[in-house]
Amino acid sequence: MTPEDARKLFAGPCDFSLGVVRMEDLPEADLPEVAFAGRSNVGKSSLLNALTGRKALARTSNTPGRTRELNFFDLGGQLRLVDLPGYGYARASRSDVESWTGLTLDYLSGRPNLRRVCVLIDSRHGLKPVDATTMDTLDVAAVPYQIVLTKSDKIKPPAAKAVTAAVAEAIAKRPAAHPDVLLTSSEKNLGLAELRTELGSLTDS
């Protein structure tokens, strides 16, 4: 898919389909899916909104742990975007956190039409042990994933270059990791065209 085709795809219809709290309620596996995973408050919802040029497609919040379902969005009948609950800190009971963490892991390891997982990392902080746990799950399940660094507008270019290189080195030997680390900013629209093209190409496979 060309960058222009990807731009048109993400600028077209994109509608919320459903929120899922149980594996048995997942939609039919009839479209390729891209899931967005990351620590709480890493900017998943903001990135989804920026990719699709909308302000409120996905709910954003300054409160970590706001997303507590698997939220599915239909992108023009060609691709399904999935906003996953953030892992790590959340203002919720331990049982609730365990419930949606278990649901997320089950989805990531058992969804046949899941083409890629975008693992979002705050560029100010780099990889954390909890991110490695998620990548371990994806490596074992042989689910392709790509690291997307968020909030790059919050750091200076030399620091952005350094964290990109450090993350690329850290994932170099991981079997399911995409080798290209994308540096993005939802506020400044940095790296979004490249990400749209990457994800749009999955509709061709």
Account of the 3D structure:
The chain is an alpha/beta fold and 205 residues long. The chain has a single domain (3-204), classed as Rossmann fold (3-Layer(aba) Sandwich), CATH 3.40.50.300. It is 35% helix and 20% strand. The protein has helices at residues 3-11, 44-52, 94-110, 129-141, 157-171, 192-200, and strands spanning 14-20, 33-38, 70-75, 79-83, 114-122, 145-150, 182-183. Strands 1-3-4-2-5-6-7 form a seven-stranded mixed sheet, with helices on both faces. Helix 3 packs parallel to helix 4 (129-141). The longest helix is centred in the middle third of the chain and has 17 residues, at 94-110. It starts with a helix and ends in a 5-residue tail after the last helix. Mean pLDDT is 88; it is low at 60-66.
Explain the layout of strands and helices.
Layout: H1 3-11, E1 14-20, E2 33-38, H2 44-52, E3 70-75, E4 79-83, H3 94-110, E5 114-122, H4 129-141, E6 145-150, H5 157-171, E7 182-183, H6 192-200
Parallel strand pairs: 2-4, 2-5, 5-6, 6-7
Antiparallel strand pairs: 1-3, 3-4
Helix pairs in contact: 1-6, 3-4
Uncertain residue ranges: 60-66
Alpha-carbon distance between the two ends: 11 Å
Main sheet properties: 7 strands, mixed
CATH architecture: 3-Layer(aba) Sandwich
CATH class: Alpha Beta
Beta-strand proportion: 15-25%
The CATH topology, please?
Answer: Rossmann fold
Helix content: 25-40%
Cα-atom radius of gyration: 16 Å
How many beta-strand runs? Answer: 7
Instruction: Write the H/E string, N to C.
Output: HEEHEEHEHEHEH
Q: Given the helix and strand composition, which structural class is it?
A: alpha/beta
Which homologous superfamily in CATH is the superfamily? Answer: P-loop containing nucleotide triphosphate hydrolases
Number of helices: 6
Mean pLDDT: 88
Categorize the overall geometry. globular
Number of separate structural domains: 1
